[in-house]
Design brief:
The complex is a heterodimer of chains A (155) and B (299). With 155 residues, chain A is mainly α. Chain A is 72% helix and 0% strand. Chain B is mainly alpha-helical. Chain B folds into two domains: 154 residues, no CATH class; 103 residues, Cytochrome Bc1 Complex, Chain D, domain 2 (Orthogonal Bundle). In chain B, a hairpin with a 2-residue loop joins strand 1 and strand 2. The chains are: A mainly alpha (155), B mainly alpha (299).
């Protein structure tokens, strides 16, 4: 009887370990890649944002470098990063809504709008602080346009 | 035209009967608008600060389509589903034939031109603090927006909340045009208070409501359950929202959080409006949020 219990306990324990591992490692490489790309966007925007907010002194070279990075990142070909079966229903580690796969044309148009906002920031960031500040609004708007339509809320 | 008169007669009869039992819908005296000259540019600021398009543009409208206030968005609440009406400049289906007094009555008293109570899903509990000059300017600005002939859909509200007469009692209890933060403020904080408490109607979501749907003003901007049942709307008091003034102002401009994630949920709609305000107005909002009582403060 004790043997049975220890078997059961080992069994449950294994299920718990595998389950826990699954929850942590379920990320598809494509999901990881697009999250990494988002992190790179955010890091470069943080350089610009710190100057826009007055947390960092305006530096034309630093601003231009960040904006150049962002513009380059906005042109990365993401076609392999969004395979079928990586929406938030199939992969709970993702917040990408299934609607993305039903509206690829619109997603592409919103991506293009982001690339344009990034290009506008690239043109503005090295000019002066006012130009940088003015480009922040449209840049954020382009991010939100896609997130509003195609990203599940947190929690 | 005859149908309109019949409808008016029925509504007037209902409103008249209600007056005998409960409070009559109150109105603004037309003389209060005497001498006020509309300022279109100011009207546009009021339009964006008040976020009219966030509710009254068509579902999913983007960019310039957000200026077509044809209505149709649905708002799920514990009382039923409210459907935003057409407030475009169409004279028949929108509000194109409204006078500025009609608009004042709607915003300040929650009273329709036919003297019916509006449901407080229309945030007149906040708009009641609007300056009369801003009503006149907003009225002029709304006239410049496109007309749309989509008829307004009825709200889907069950008994007993479908009895509009009862809203007179609701207003007696919860319609209070005094400032929530009622103390000496700097000019900048005062501007922020006006934008938050009146036009921006932030409290409508960020303040908890009681069982009758009235805002619990002693818990002003301390956060609330989301009325659609999913998640929680965050508190904005200084002890809950640790962002700097610059963080708040930037968020209201570009939607970037201090982590440079972008805004989510209903705030995306809000930021589409606050992004149109001036830097000074966004900073004023931030300054006001820094002086509201904390959630841990005892009132």
């Amino acid at each position: 009887m004790t043997k049975f219990f220890s078997f059961a306990a080992v069994g449950l324990f294994s299920v718990a370990i595998v389950g826990g591992a699954l929850a942590q490692q379920s990320e598809n490489p494509a999901v990881k890649a697009r999250k990494s790309l988002m992190s790179l966007y955010a890091f470069n925007i943080s350089q610009l944002g710190a100057m826009a907010k007055g947390e960092a002194e305006y530096n034309a070279e630093v601003a231009a470098a960040a904006a150049n990075n962002l513009a380059t990142l906005s042109k990365v070909d993401q076609s392999a990063m969004w395979p079928a079966g990586t929406d938030n229903v199939a992969d709970p580690s993702s917040r990408a809504l299934p609607a993305i796969w039903e509206n690829f044309a619109d997603v592409g148009a919103k991506g293009q709008a982001f690339a344009e906002a990034a290009a506008a920031m690239q043109a503005a960031a090295g000019q002066d602080l006012d130009a940088l500040k003015a480009a922040m609004g449209p840049l954020g708007g382009a991010c939100s346009a896609c997130h509003k339509a195609y990203r599940a809320p947190k929690e | 035209m005859r149908r309109w008169f019949v409808a008016l007669a029925i509504v007037a009869a209902l409103a008249g009967g209600a007056g005998l039992i409960l409070t009559r819908p109150s109105v603004t005296a037309p003389t209060e608008l005497n001498g006020l000259v509309p300022d279109l540019a100011q009207g546009e600021v009021v339009f964006y600060a008040a976020g009219c398009a966030a509710c009254h543009s068509a579902p999913g409208a983007e960019k310039e389509d957000r200026l077509v206030l044809s209505g149709g968005r649905r708002f799920e609440t514990p009382f039923g589903t409210f459907v935003a009406p057409n407030i475009s400049s169409d004279p028949e289906h929108g509000i194109g034939n409204w006078s500025s007094v009609d608009l004042a009555n709607a915003l300040i008293h929650g009273t329709s031109p036919s003297r019916q109570h509006y449901y407080p899903a229309f945030p007149y509990a906040s708009y009641s603090r609007i300056k009369m000059q801003d009503v006149v300017s907003l009225h002029a600005f709304l006239k410049t927006l496109p007309a749309n002939s989509a008829p307004s859909a009825p709200h889907e509200i069950g008994f007993p909340f479908n009895i509009r007469l009862a809203l007179g009692g609701w207003k007696l209890l919860f319609l209070d045009p005094d400032w929530v933060v009622d103390r000496e403020l700097t000019a900048e904080q005062e501007r922020g208070r006006y934008l938050v408490e009146a036009l921006g109607h932030c409290g409508e979501c960020h303040t908890r409501r009681n069982a009758l749907g009235g805002m619990v003003l002693s818990e002003w901007l301390q956060g609330a359950p989301n009325p659609n049942g999913r998640g929680r709307i965050p508190g904005l008091t200084p002890d809950q929202l640790k962002w700097s003034e610059a963080d708040i102002a930037e968020y209201l401009k570009s939607g970037f959080t201090p982590d440079y994630d972008s805004a989510g949920g209903e705030m995306v709609e809000v930021i589409e409006n606050t992004s149109r305000l001036s830097d000074a107005d966004r900073l004023a909002i931030a300054k006001y949020l820094k002086i509201i009582p904390g959630a841990s403060a005892v009132d």
